[in-house]
């Protein structure tokens, strides 16, 4: 017997019938698809003996797809043209600039204590400007990707200018300090690296260091074309621990460099040399990433049971504003072209030197 409290079984819900117009619409869609399928099959059979272009034109489905692809390609092309137009405007803005965020006017006197006091006074500001500019310049970049941007233009005074930004990665290194020390090695041996890698006769006329916190050097280099360039530069390197630059900012290294505009002790020699000014910034940061290649000696690798092997990667982001002043003495068109083409080669030497030091000592 059933329990008096047992509820009667609920009736099954009635299946809702589709409206007639919905059924007809579905039938029409199915028939249309069948027609297209049959037409496509007929076109395939007819087009077996035709060239590919004519066979595609004989197939209505392919014709429609081609029309859609052409429309999408046209939209994409117009978007790319808008981007190219924006890049052209940006290049014009660069050419109209009379200064650069990394540049600061620097004047050094004859007195050695006063010269060093000047460098100490501007050091903190130069490091801050270098860090802020690099962070702003790379704010929308993909940190794991390599990047290179190189813009060159002629100023109203006839000087050749180069605005360069680059991001490179040193994979499998031991530490941030290892790459930083390689950077300092290049800084203190620049003339040797340039001579060895470019074959230019390069000498350091003067060199001053303030306990590794500030460097001032004057370098003259004779190019392959026979013209000598000169550079009077100051550099400020610094290794920062975690949170030293701000809360949440990891360990990093920054190097700011700039040109000396006026030096009472070592004035420029425009009658015989072409002046080269460099305002630059370098930022080194660290991250851990999956190991790309197996085998070989991997120094900075680590793995936890059940997890993929990772390696230490130091990313170097560097920016530079290079100005090659218009020669004040006769220079052949060939020599001038050689100077223009090699305006950024010292930066390439810097990267190759750091790589050589890092991966040779690992």
TrEMBL record:
It comes from the Eukaryota. Residues 1-11 have a biased composition (Pro residues). Residues 21-48 form a coiled coil. Keywords: Coiled coil. Residues 1-20 are annotated as: Disordered. This is Unnamed protein product. It comes from Phytophthora lilii. The lineage of its organism: Eukaryota, Sar, Stramenopiles, Oomycota, Peronosporomycetes.
């Amino acid at each position: 017997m059933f329990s008096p409290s047992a509820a009667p079984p609920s009736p099954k819900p009635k299946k809702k019938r589709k409206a007639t117009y919905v059924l007809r619409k579905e039938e029409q869609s199915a028939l249309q698809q069948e027609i297209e399928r049959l037409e496509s099959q007929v076109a395939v059979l007819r087009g077996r003996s035709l060239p590919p272009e004519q066979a595609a034109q004989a197939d209505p489905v392919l014709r429609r797809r081609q029309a859609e692809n052409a429309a999408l390609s046209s939209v994409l092309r117009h978007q790319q043209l808008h981007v190219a137009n924006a890049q052209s405007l940006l290049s014009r803005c660069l050419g109209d600039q009379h200064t650069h965020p990394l540049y600061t006017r620097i004047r050094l006197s004859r007195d050695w204590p006063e010269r060093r006091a000047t460098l100490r006074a501007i050091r903190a500001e130069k490091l801050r400007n270098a860090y802020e500019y690099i962070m702003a310049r790379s704010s929308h970049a993909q940190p794991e990707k390599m990047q290179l941007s190189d813009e060159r233009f002629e100023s109203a005074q006839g000087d050749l200018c180069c605005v360069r930004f680059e991001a490179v990665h040193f994979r499998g290194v031991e530490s941030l300090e290892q790459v930083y020390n390689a950077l300092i090695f290049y800084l203190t041996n620049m003339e040797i690296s340039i001579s060895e890698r470019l074959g230019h006769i390069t000498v350091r006329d003067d060199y001053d260091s303030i306990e590794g916190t500030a460097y001032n050097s004057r370098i003259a280099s004779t190019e392959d074309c026979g013209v000598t360039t000169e550079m009077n530069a100051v550099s400020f390197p610094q290794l920062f621990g975690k949170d030293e630059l701000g809360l949440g900012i990891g360990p990093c290294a920054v190097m700011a460099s700039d040109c000396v505009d006026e030096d009472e002790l070592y004035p420029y020699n425009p009658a015989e040399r072409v002046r080269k000014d460099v305002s630059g910034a370098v930022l080194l940061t660290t991250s851990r990433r999956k190991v790309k290649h197996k085998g070989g000696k991997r120094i900075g690798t680590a793995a936890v049971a059940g997890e993929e092997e990772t390696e230490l990667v130091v990313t170097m982001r560097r920016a530079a504003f290079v100005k090659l002043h218009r020669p004040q003495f006769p220079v052949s068109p060939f020599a001038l072209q050689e100077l223009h083409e090699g305006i950024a080669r010292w930066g390439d030497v810097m990267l190759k030197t750091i790589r050589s030091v890092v991966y040779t000592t690992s």
